[in-house]
Structures are given as structure tokens and as C-alpha cells.
Automatic annotation (TrEMBL):
Cofactor annotation comment: Binds 2 magnesium ions per subunit.
Listed cofactors: Mg(2+)
InterPro entries the record matches: ADP-ribosylglycohydrolase, Dual-sp_phosphatase_cat-dom, Prot-tyrosine_phosphatase-like, Ribosyl_crysJ1, Ribosyl_crysJ1_sf, Tyr_Pase_dom
Acetylation as UniProt keyword: no
Top-rank taxon: Bacteria
CDD domains to which the protein is assigned, alphabetical: DSP
Family indicated by similarity: Belongs to the ADP-ribosylglycohydrolase family.
Protein's recorded name: Ribosylglycohydrolase
Record keywords: Hydrolase, Magnesium, Metal-binding
GO terms for MF: hydrolase activity; metal ion binding
Pfam family membership, one: DSPc
Keyword Ion transport on entry: no
Ranges of residues in domain Tyrosine specific protein phosphatases: 405-456
């Protein structure tokens, strides 16, 4: 399945992107189309910083990545202990979640059994435990049970009940996890795929709720602190946002639906970070990590000191079910030290991964077009990884035109900031010259074939694969408009 890995990687990444995008607008009314929605930060949140939505999901993901069965008490003990550890220094913790975790931790080490008992007691006493706090964190469960839907349903209910005992909360987690699992496995969106796992006396109610969400705008569900309306607002943002047609000449791309739908989720207002995080988990499963804009990847960060790179690695670790990553990051047999300056802009450096590992002092930003080991990641300058796969015999780039356009715009932005930018892949053979040619064509307003000839003059061993060359030609008619000159 050519884009399966992309969809696995997209689940946590897009969850965090929606979360960080919505964080500055939380508790505010719906935003009109004349107002900006951007990943700018605000209040206690820095630009690109995720909130409790993603942090609690990460705690689940960390345990899932060990390969343990999340239905078991041992795994659930680890999850609630990690939540408790996080909550002690967190900038924000949901009222219901905080109440359960704090009470469960009194008198010793917190356990899942104690948390669940207190969650059940709270529900029995108040009847008000259907907040959106379990739904917002549920996405990693889908990755843990891609091959076992029945186990996923059990785990989704069990993990929800640790803090949110209301059946609406558990049902919502089941529906969303099943939809994410289905999307990762098939690439198709179906929010109803999990209805068969809802109790028969509640199935029609949920079908009606989903129908309402699919036909009304996100702002129609203002009480989105409730798990039902939070789910409905997320469904609405996805279902009522038109999916753009792929038209490279007009610079419209199907992949942009992820960005546009998350924008719509935030514009719903009120619990904006949570609604967008919920929507992000499913959108990432449908469109993959490659649909998450590079500018968002650049900014994403949060507890416990993680970045976009770490979220992708965590998602793939869950999918491997605890098995080690056998990828050889030494790239044996590749000419990793290839290096040249862009023929039209000597502050854009083109090279192999060896240049990253011996980074010239002048470099102020890095755009990586290949897989990186953790030790290769720079944290002292902007460093963005782009999901671009060079396998001509098996194309794994479901949004190739979008990714190339988005990557070049990212390079242009970094140059406008006055930075010297390293653009690299493994050996500067296929991916790097492709991006270099599109950047040059836009910079000079020339044909991509002419730009490629000049790139090959400085990278004589380069030869972009056929799918990359075809994509450049699809993009060139609109891409020839010259961007503002860089300093």
C-alpha cells in the first residue's frame, strides 16, 4: 500500500497540528472569515506548542510503542502514571481529568484500577462525566490495533473510562478510533464505520448525531466541551469543508483539505484546540503526514520536549508493535558528502546528508528531504523534515505536487528571514535537485527544464526520477511567477 506509512505518520502529527493551531483561540467565540487563523501561540502557549490534548495522547502513545496490550492493567497503570507525572507541571489540565488523577494519586502510587473506580464514582454522583477529555487523546489507540478492530474497541472504552466514565465518552472514542483505523488502512474517510460497535439501543442516536454534523457548519455545535458536540464539530469541519481538486496549474491540491478543515475546526470557536486536535487525528489518517504544511512542522513542539520528528517516530514505533527500527541511517553505498551552492542563490546549499552532519557555520536553517536519525536533528536552528520518498519503482508520494510546492515555499520563507538554507537528501541525486530546480524556476521566472540543466551543472551526478520530473512540469506554469527577492 503505497501511502500506508504516510498515513500512519500523519495521525499524531496532524493531531498536534490541530491542537497547536487552535490553542490561541480557545474559549473565544466563532471566528469570521475576515479573521486570521494561524499557528501563532497565545496565552501560556508558544507558537506551535501543543496543549493537554496532544500531551495526554503522547502518554498513551509511549506505552503503545512498547508493544504492550493497552487493555491490560499493567499498561493502563503506566498510562495513568504518565498522565499524573505530566499533570504536575502541565500548563493546563481539564477539570474532570485533574479531579480523577489527583484523587487517584492520594495515598500512594496511582493505578488504573483506582482511577477507574473514582471515575465511575464521579459519574454516579454527578452524571456529568461526558467532557471531551478522553476523545481528544484517543487517536494513538487506533495505531496500536490496526490489525484487530475488536481489541481496539475494547481498549478505546477502557482508556476512556479511566477518567471519563460516561457511555457517551466511550462511544465517541470507539467511533473515532474505528474511523482513524479505517482511514490508515484504506485511505478512506468513513466516520460511521464504527457504528456496528455501538450498543443497539444507542446506534440510531449516534447515527442521527453524525448526520447532523455532516450537514451543519462547525459553529452549529457551540457547546463543544461536551464530548458529543466536540465530535460533531470535528466531523462538521471535515465534512463541510470542500475537498480541493488536484490542479497544480491553479496551485490547488487535494492535500490542502487537511489544512482547510483544521482551519474550519478552529473557526468553530470555544474549545478550539480540542476540536481541531480531534479532527486532526482523522485528517492525518486520511491524508498522511505529507499533507501537514512544512511551516507547521517547523513550529510544532511540546511536552515532554518533543517535536514533529519525534511524533512521527512515535507513530511508526506504535505501528511496529514494539519491534526495533531496522532502518540503516548510515546510508551505505551513497555519496553522502555531495555539496554545491545553488546556481541562482549562493545562500541555498544543496547536498547530501553528510553536509548536515558536518554543517557549515553559515547555515541558519535546514530542510531535510530524507529520513533522519534522532542524532541528526538540529535544535539550535529551524530544521524541517519533508516527507519525500525516492523509490521510482514504487511511488510512495501520494501528494507529490503539493509537497514540492510546499517545500519550495518553505525555503523561500526561510530565505526571506535572511537565513542560509541547507536543502539535502541522502546523496543529492534525485530529491535535492528536484527541489533546487523548482526553487530556481520560481526565483528566476524560467522554465523548470532550464533550471534543472543549471542544477545539473553544479550537481553533475544528479538525476531526478521520472515522477519528480513529471511533477516539475505540472507545477511549472504557475510556479514561474518570481517570488520576492531574498536577502
Amino acid at each position: 500500500m503505497t501511502s500506508y506509512n504516510d498515513r500512519v505518520e500523519g495521525v499524531l502529527l496532524a493531531t498536534a497540528a490541530g491542537d497547536a493551531l487552535g490553542a490561541p483561540y480557545e474559549f473565544k467565540p466563532p471566528r469570521g472569515p475576515e479573521l486570521e487563523v494561524a499557528m501563532v501561540g497565545g496565552g501560556p502557549w508558544a507558537a506551535g506548542e501543543w496543549t493537554d490534548d496532544t500531551s495526554m495522547a503522547i502518554a498513551i502513545a509511549e506505552v503503545a510503542a512498547t508493544g504492550g496490550d493497552l487493555r491490560g492493567e499493567d499498561a493502563q497503570d503506566l498510562i495513568v502514571q504518565r498522565w499524573r507525572e505530566w499533570s504536575l507541571t502541565a500548563k493546563d489540565v481539564g477539570i474532570q481529568t485533574s479531579s480523577v488523577l489527583s484523587a487517584a494519586a492520594r495515598g500512594g502510587v496511582i493505578t488504573a484500577a483506582r482511577a477507574r473506580a473514582l471515575s465511575a464514582d464521579l459519574h454516579e454522583r454527578t452524571g456529568r462525566t461526558a467532557g471531551n477529555g478522553s476523545l481528544m487523546r484517543t487517536a494513538p489507540l487506533a495505531l496500536a490495533y490496526l490489525d484487530d478492530e475488536g481489541a481496539l474497541v475494547e481498549a478505546a472504552r477502557a482508556i476512556s473510562e479511566l477518567t471519563h466514565f460516561d457511555p457517551d465518552a466511550a462511544d465517541a472514542c470507539v467511533l473515532w478510533c474505528c474511523a482513524i483505523r479505517h482511514a490508515v488502512r484504506t485511505g478512506k474517510l468513513d466516520v460511521r464505520i464504527g457504528l456496528r460497535h455501538i450498543a443497539s439501543d444507542r446506534r440510531d442516536l449516534w447515527s442521527t448525531r453524525l448526520g447532523e454534523a455532516e450537514s451543519a457548519p462547525p459553529a452549529s455545535f457551540p457547546n463543544n466541551g461536551w464530548v458529543v458536540t466536540a465530535l460533531q464539530a470535528a466531523v462538521s469541519a471535515i465534512a463541510t469543508t470542500p475537498v480541493p481538486a488536484d490542479d497544480p496549474r491553479a496551485e490547488t491540491f487535494r492535500a490542502d483539505h487537511l489544512r482547510l478543515a483544521l482551519d474550519a475546526a478552529v473557526r468553530a470557536g470555544y474549545d478550539t484546540d480540542t476540536v481541531a486536535a480531534i479532527a486532526g487525528g482523522l485528517l492525518g489518517a486520511v491524508y498522511g503526514a505529507s499533507a501537514v504544511p512544512g511551516e507547521w512542522r517547523r513550529l510544532l513542539h511540546g511536552w515532554p520536549g518533543m517535536t514533529a520528528h519525534d511524533l512521527v517516530g512515535l507513530a511508526t514505533a506504535i505501528e511496529r508493535n514494539g519491534k526495533p527500527d531496522d532502518f540503516d541511517f548510515s546510508y551505505p553505498g551513497s555519496p553522502i558528502d555531495t555539496f554545491a551552492r545553488h546556481p541562482y542563490d549562493d545562500r541555498v546549499l544543496l547536498g547530501g546528508i553528510g553536509v548536515l552532519r558536518e554543517l557549515p557555520e553559515e547555515v541558519g536553517a535546514v530542510v531535510s528531504l530524507c529520513r533522519l536519525a534522532d542524532d541528526d536533528i538540529r535544535d539550535d536552528i529551524p530544521h524541517v523534515e519533508v516527507r519525500l520518498i525516492d523509490r521510482p519503482e514504487r511511488d510512495e508520494n501520494p501528494h507529490l505536487d503539493f509537497v514540492l510546492r510546499d517545500t519550495v515555499r518553505l525555503v523561500e520563507q526561510l530565505r526571506r528571514e535572511g537565513r542560509t538554507v541547507l536543502v539535502h537528501c541522502v546523496g543529492a541525486y534525485s530529491r535535492t535537485p528536484t527541489v533546487g530546480a523548482l526553487y530556481g524556476a520560481r526565483l528566476r521566472g524560467i522554465d523548470v527544464d532550464e533550471a534543472m540543466r543549471d542544477i545539473k551543472a553544479v550537481l553533475p551526478d544528479s538525476y531526478p526520477n521520472r515522477s519528480f520530473r513529471d511533477a516539475l512540469r505540472r507545477l511549472q506554469s504557475r510556479g514561474l511567477e518570481s517570488p520576492r527577492r531574498c536577502s
